[in-house]
Design goal:
Order of helices and strands of chain A: HHHHHHHHHHHHH
Number of helices of chain A: 13
Helix content of chain B: over 70%
CATH class of chain B: Mainly Alpha
Number of strands of chain A: 0
CATH architecture of chain B: Orthogonal Bundle
Structural class of chain B: mainly alpha
Shape of chain B: globular
Largest sheet of chain B: 2 strands, antiparallel
Number of domains of chain A: 2
Helix content of chain A: over 70%
Number of helices of chain B: 14
Oligomer: heterodimer
CATH topology of the largest domain in chain A: MetI-like fold
Strand order of the largest sheet of chain B: 1-2
CATH superfamily of chain B: MetI-like
CATH architecture of the largest domain in chain A: Orthogonal Bundle
Number of strands of chain B: 2
Largest interface: A-B, 99 and 100 residues
Chain lengths: 281, 288
C-alpha cells in the first residue's frame, strides 16, 4: 500500500489515526503514572496538592512500610513457591499428554483431546465448593498445596493444546529413526521431543507463571490462613486494613505488580508470540 | 503393551483433570438439586429438584439483576474491546519501533493481577482525591465528578471501563496474528484497481480475519460470563446489590450465606451458558 502515491486525503487520515493512537496511549499509561505519583509521596502532600502534582519530597519509605505492614514477604514467598512447583510440573504433565495426542494413532485420541479442550471454557466457580471439601478431607486444606491440583487441572487444556500443536510439526522421521535405533517411547519423549520443544515450553512457562501469580478466585476460596496467602489475596487483605491510606496502598499495589511488569517488559517477545501463535493453532 | 502406551502418557494429565475438574463439576451439578449449607454431612441434603434454578430465574431479584448485569457486561465485552483491538491491530500492523512501543503500552495492563487492576481503578475513581474527578474538575466539568463506584447508575459502567483498559490488548494481539495470514498482494492488487482504504478493510481485512473473529468473540462471551475479580475488588456487588454478576452472587451465596445448593445452581447457570458459547471456539481449536 505504501508505494502507491498517497493523496492528501490519505495523509490527513493517517494523521488523524496517529493522533488518536497517541491520545489513547496517554490514557492507557495514565493509571501507571497515577499509582507512581501516589506511591512515592506522603499522604498529606498527596491530599493537599493533588495526585497530578510533583511530590514535595520522595517518600521511599512508603515501600518499606507497605512491605512490612502488608506482610508482603510471606505472600511473595508463597506465590513464588507455587510458581516453582506448579509451572514445571504442569508443563511436564501437559507435554506427556500432548505427545500421544500428536504422534500416536489410537482409538479415542480425538475424544480425549476434545474433552481437554472443553476445559478451556469451564468456569472455576463450578468446581469451588467440591474442591474446598476435597482439600479439607485430603488434609491439605488452607495450605499452599491445596492450590496446586486445581491450578494444574485448569492449566492443562491450554498447555496440551499448544504442545500438541507443536509436536505435530516435528517430523515423524525423527521418531521412526529413534525407534529403529532401539529407543524406548519414554526415551524418545525425554531425549528427542522435550529438548526440541524448548521454545513453546519457555513461552508457556512465562504465561503460566503470570497466571499463577495473578490467580485470585480459587485462592480466595481455598486459602484463609494468613501464612498461606498468595499475593492477590494478601493484597486484598492489605487493602482492607489500609483502605484510606492511599499512598501506602498504592505502594503495596506497585510492589505486587512490579514482578509481572518486569517479566512482561523483558520477555514480551516470547509471551506475545505464544499467545498469538497458540490460538492460531 | 502397544495399545496401552498412549494411555500411560495420558494418565497423569487425565487423572488430574478428571479428579480436580470434571468430578467437582459433576458434584456441583448434583448439589444444585438440593438445599444444603455445604458444611453439614451430605446425608442432611434436602432434594428440591429444579427449585434452586427456579429461585434464580423467578424469585431472587439479585440473581436476576446479576444475570442482566452479565448480559450488559458480555455485550459490552463483545463489542468495545474487540472493535478497539481490531482498530489497534490494523493501525499498528507494520513493525516499527513506535508501533512496537504502542503495542506494549496497550497490552501492559493485561498482564497485571486483576486484583491490582481493581485497586488501581478504585483509587482512580476515588470521589475526593481520585485522578478521574481531579481531571474532570480541572477542566470545569465539576458536575460530572461524582462517586463513580458508589452510584447505582455509574458503578457498573465505571467497572466495565476498567475491564476495557485491561482487556483491549488481548484481541489486539490475536488480530495482529490474524493479519499476518492475509497476503499483501491482495491489497496491492485492490489498490491498483482503485479500491479505497475502506474497501480494502471491508472486503479484504475483515473477511481475512474470519477465523480470528470466531476466537475473539467466543472468548469475549466466555470471559464476560465468568467475570468475578474486578466486581469483587471494585464494588463488592454494591452499592446495595446493584452490581452483582452471577460469578460474585454465586460466591456470596456459597461461601458467605452458606447456601451451597443454591450457589451450585448459580454456578451451573454460568457454566451452561459459557459451554454453549464455547462450542464454535472448541470446534475451531480442535480442527487440524
Amino acid at each position: 500500500m505504501d508505494n502507491i502515491v498517497a493523496s492528501a486525503a490519505d495523509r490527513r487520515f493517517a494523521l488523524v489515526v496517529k493522533l488518536f493512537l497517541a491520545a489513547l496511549a496517554v490514557i492507557w499509561l495514565m493509571p501507571f503514572v497515577v499509582i507512581l505519583l501516589t506511591a512515592i509521596r506522603a499522604q498529606g502532600d498527596m491530599i493537599s496538592n493533588g495526585v497530578f502534582s510533583w511530590p514535595e519530597a520522595i517518600a521511599w519509605t512508603n515501600f518499606s512500610s507497605a512491605w512490612d505492614a502488608g506482610n508482603f514477604s510471606v505472600y511473595f514467598r508463597n506465590s513464588l513457591f507455587l510458581i516453582l512447583v506448579k509451572v514445571p510440573l504442569g508443563l511436564l504433565v501437559a507435554s506427556l499428554a500432548a505427545y500421544p495426542l500428536a504422534k500416536m494413532k489410537f482409538p479415542g485420541s480425538e475424544a480425549v483431546f476434545i474433552v481437554f479442550l472443553v476445559g478451556l471454557a469451564v468456569p472455576v466457580q463450578v468446581t469451588l465448593q467440591p474442591l474446598l471439601i476435597m482439600m479439607k478431607s485430603l488434609g491439605i486444606g488452607n495450605t499452599l498445596w491445596a492450590l496446586i491440583p486445581p491450578y494444574l487441572a485448569f492449566g492443562l487444556p491450554f498447555q496440551i493444546f499448544v504442545m500438541r500443536g507443536f509436536f505435530r510439526l516435528l517430523p515423524n522421521e525423527l521418531i521412526e529413526a529413534a525407534r529403529v535405533d532401539g529407543a524406548s517411547e519414554s526415551g524418545i519423549f525425554f531425549r528427542i521431543m522435550l529438548p526440541l520443544s524448548l521454545p513453546p515450553l519457555a513461552t508457556l512457562a512465562i504465561i503460566d507463571a503470570l497466571a499463577t501469580w495473578n490467580e485470585f478466585l480459587i485462592a480466595l476460596v481455598l486459602i484463609s490462613a494468613n501464612a498461606s496467602r498468595t499475593v492477590p489475596i494478601g493484597l486484598m487483605q492489605f487493602q482492607g486494613q489500609y483502605s484510606s491510606q492511599y499512598t501506602l496502598l498504592m505502594a503495596g499495589v506497585l510492589i505486587s505488580i512490579i514482578p509481572v511488569l518486569i517479566i512482561f517488559l523483558f520477555l514480551q517477545r516470547y509471551f506475545v508470540a505464544g499467545l498469538a501463535g497458540s490460538v492460531k493453532g | 503393551m502397544g495399545a496401552a502406551r498412549p494411555w500411560l502418557f495420558l494418565a497423569p494429565a487425565l487423572s488430574l483433570y478428571v479428579v480436580f475438574l470434571v468430578l467437582p463439576m459433576l458434584f456441583t451439578l448434583y448439589t444444585s438439586f438440593f438445599t444444603w449449607d455445604g458444611l453439614s454431612p451430605m446425608s442432611e441434603m434436602v432434594w428440591v429438584g429444579f427449585g434452586n434454578y427456579i429461585r434464580a430465574f423467578v424469585d431472587d431479584d439479585v440473581a436476576r439483576r446479576a444475570f442482566v448485569n452479565n448480559l450488559y457486561w458480555t455485550v459490552g465485552a463483545v463489542i468495545i474491546p474487540t472493535v478497539i483491538g481490531l482498530f489497534l491491530a490494523v493501525a499498528l500492523n507494520s513493525v516499527t519501533a513506535v508501533n512496537k512501543a504502542l503495542r506494549t503500552i496497550y497490552y501492559a495492563p493485561a498482564v497485571l493481577p486483576l486484583v491490582a487492576v481493581g485497586l488501581i481503578w478504585g483509587w482512580m475513581y476515588n470521589p475526593n482525591f481520585g485522578a478521574v474527578n481531579l481531571f474532570l474538575r480541572s477542566v470545569g466539568l465539576d458536575a460530572l465528578a461524582g462517586g463513580w463506584l458508589s452510584s447505582h447508575s455509574m458503578a457498573l459502567p465505571a467497572t466495565f471501563l476498567t475491564y476495557v483498559w485491561s482487556h483491549v490488548g488481548f484481541p489486539m494481539i490475536l488480530y495482529l496474528a490474524g493479519l499476518q495470514a492475509i497476503p499483501r498482494e491482495l491489497y496491492e492488487a485492490a489498490r491498483i484497481d482503485g479500491a479505497t482504504r475502506w474497501h480494502c478493510f471491508r472486503f479484504i481485512t475483515l473477511p481475512g480475519l474470519a477465523e480470528t473473529h470466531v476466537i475473539v468473540l467466543s472468548l469475549a462471551v466466555i470471559n464476560g460470563f465468568k467475570v468475578f475479580d474486578l466486581i469483587y475488588t471494585m464494588t463488592y456487588g454494591g452499592p446495595g446489590r446493584s452490581t452483582h454478576v452471577l460469578g460474585t452472587w454465586m460466591y456470596f451465596q456459597t461461601f458467605q450465606y452458606y447456601e451451597a445448593g443454591y450457589g451450585a445452581a448459580l454456578a451451573w447457570v454460568i457454566a451452561a451458558i459459557v459451554l454453549v458459547f464455547a462450542v464454535p471456539y472448541i470446534r475451531r481449536m480442535s480442527r487440524d
